[in-house]
Amino acid sequence: MPVRHHLQTLDNRVRGRLALVTGASGGIGEGCARALASEGCDVVIHYSTSKVGRHSSFPCHRKRAFKLGADADGERAEVVASDLRTQYPDQVFATVAANLADRGSARGLVPNVLGQPEISSKHKAISILVANAANGRRIRDVGEIGEDDWDEMMEVNSRSQFVVSKACIEGMRAQSWGRIILIGSIASRGGGINGCHYAASKGALSSMGMNLATLLAPEGITVNVVLRFATRLVLSLELTLSATCLQIQPGMMVPSGMVPTPKGSSWEEGCDMERLRAEDPGLAIATMVPVRRPGNPAEVGNAVNM
């Protein structure tokens, strides 16, 4: 029997959902955590238990000490959580520690979040993941980049992001809803002020995001990659509305007048597309969109507002 697909309904409601923001004790991560809190999310604020150079498992970094260590990160994370609890007393804000350079610690991050009593009593899944944590230690000259530098950058910026995303996807699939935001870098396109090891790690992250966006969109899970330069976000790759384009597609909005409103709400896999285009052009267009629905103007507004 042919598989029948259905148009998805628009559901971008985040109020009451659980968000995990990695690297959220300051900077971009903290900004994302505060923004999600203002939208009504319960937020888990991740911080690192190890600074490169103090407790790194990579030999070349063990003697390169940072002034601020894991204790300071934990203190800052708790300050953020405490501040949010005061502002939004009806929501849940928790902190969680994990060293993403350590594979066991990275694997345990999501289970540790969902194992916290205040979280498990209210949530069964992480609905929103903002993967912001990264190793950004700058070595510009390729001649000064060692193999250990390369390995650690790929471990933290690429492999751990895969591990954490995969762990979150399991719960997102169970509820047919999820949002994954990967914080990349303009370095993934050859720019920026860091070295080739950093560029490669962020390039891998961006490619993973594009692949997952197409794979997961039909299941109600969207994946977006945000490219940043220094501390300013400069480009958002909207991967939910088109399988091939890396920009938001305003023309794919029904109210824009360029896409007719679908008459039907489902179609069979392998159906006669020429006939469908003739009988229901709006539905025919929707079959080509990964999220299986036309876009909504509010989604463009959200991106512009960002």
What does this structure look like?
By secondary structure, this protein is of the alpha/beta class. The chain has nine helices and nine strands. The strands form two sheets. It has a seven-stranded mixed beta sheet with strand order 4-3-2-5-6-7-8, sandwiched between helices. It has a two-stranded antiparallel ribbon with strand order 1-9. Helix 3 runs parallel beside helix 5 (about 145-175) and helix 5 (about 145-175) packs parallel to helix 6. The termini are far apart. The relative contact order is 0.13.
The largest β sheet comes out as: 7 strands, mixed
Structural class: alpha/beta
- State the distance separating the first and last CA atoms: 44 Å
Number of strands: 9
Mean pLDDT: 82
Q: Poorly predicted ranges (pLDDT <50, ≥5 residues)?
A: 52-68, 230-251
